[in-house]
Specification:
alpha+beta; 2 helices; 4 strands; DUF3565
Length: about 70
């Protein structure tokens, strides 16, 4: 299910995590060559991608919402 990014935070390993409007979290790593998301490395890039739709597999599986520090 497609869900929009509403905010970001960093996990305990300092990887960026998108907070989706559905309440789920999803890592948004820049990890070339497998995943190219250079925009996640800057404040401006992350701000420009607020509202971007990501496929939320947790919604598809009807999982409960996430909480910071729980993952």
């Amino acid at each position: 299910m497609q869900q929009a990014i509403m905010a970001y935070h960093q996990d305990e390993e300092h990887h960026w995590v998108a907070e989706l409007v559905c309440g789920h979290f999803q890592h948004v790593r820049h990890d070339p060559p497998w995943t190219v998301r250079e925009w996640v490395t800057t404040d401006l890039g992350r701000a420009q991608h607020l509202g971007m739709q990501l496929n939320c597999k947790k919604c598809d599986r009807e999982e409960p919402i996430d909480a910071i520090g729980a993952s």
